[in-house]
Amino acid sequence: MSIGVVVIGRNEGNRLRRCLESIAGSSDLVVYVDSGSTDDSVNMALSMGSEVVPLDMTTPFTAARARNEGSQRLLKLAPNLDYVQFVDGDCELVNGWLKTAASYLDSNINVAMVCGRLRERHPEQSIYNQLCNIEWDTAIGSTKACGGIAMMRIEAFKATGGYKTGLIAGEEPELCVRVRSIGWQVWRLEAEMALHDAAMTHFWQWWKRAVRTGYAYAEGAHLHGKPPERHRVKESRRVWIWGLGIPVATLGLSILLGVWGLSVLLIYPAQFIRLAWRGSRSVKENSLRALFLVLGKFPETVGQLNFVYNRLAGKAARLIEYK
Predict the structure, then answer these.
(1) Residue 250: is its pLDDT beyond 90?
(2) Domains in the chain and their CATH numbers?
(3) Could you give the percent of the chain with pLDDT greater than 90?
(4) For a Cys staple, 35 with which of 10, 86, 193, 321, CB 3.0–4.6 Å?
(5) What is the pTM of this model?
């Protein structure tokens, strides 16, 4: 089995160094794709033996375009690679993951993509980092989608044409939809895969990340919302109901019934209690997750509205960055 690694990043500093160190000696080739760093990222990657691809920043940046261009360089230099591991520059791979993932793909020829356990490096630094750590804790086994840290079979990557370069978010689940549509499977393993450094310490960072999520849901539903996939349709419907429908209904009832119309808003604390009660983690973590799931519907609605506006106005999407 032969493995290439594509790392993408911008101004990651020591996080990039840790990322590249975690890969050293475990793959056949490493390509680092830099999206306009102003720090020493490019020189650092070169000094550590990586092939470097500087993105043309006159074209709007997307992670999808960076991964595609990294893969193109990878295959140009090593056309006979079996697998490509994608990793962001703010992550570091766990020792042994590349071998574990490649061995699984070797033994399961119907699987195109495989990912493992992703953990937050510093969940104790902020509630937002902690939320990410909870978010990464997903079910093991056959899955509909994986994130940006995953290993992919080169054959499947070529067959699908790679990532959709125009997507500003949600490019990984969208690729997984196309992968599964031609008969491949996506799997999540119990094995530890990587540490992620979200570095989210402010509410505004969380808000912008949630706006991006809402935008990704809307675009995903637009691309693959028809049966049988119904991609992101359920998530988008929930956003519209909780983030816009209920507030509008409350306003209307308040006009008709006065202050009694505001009683509709009690559905939000009721939803918080329901979600917290259903959680499988500690009381603190369940409560934190439930609170931000409810709050998150409002910035996600902003993201959905942004997508609708761009579609109607014929405007290209602009990257929504939170750090």
Answers:
(1) yes
(2) 3-201 (3.90.550.10), 223-313 (no CATH)
(3) 89
(4) 10
(5) 0.94
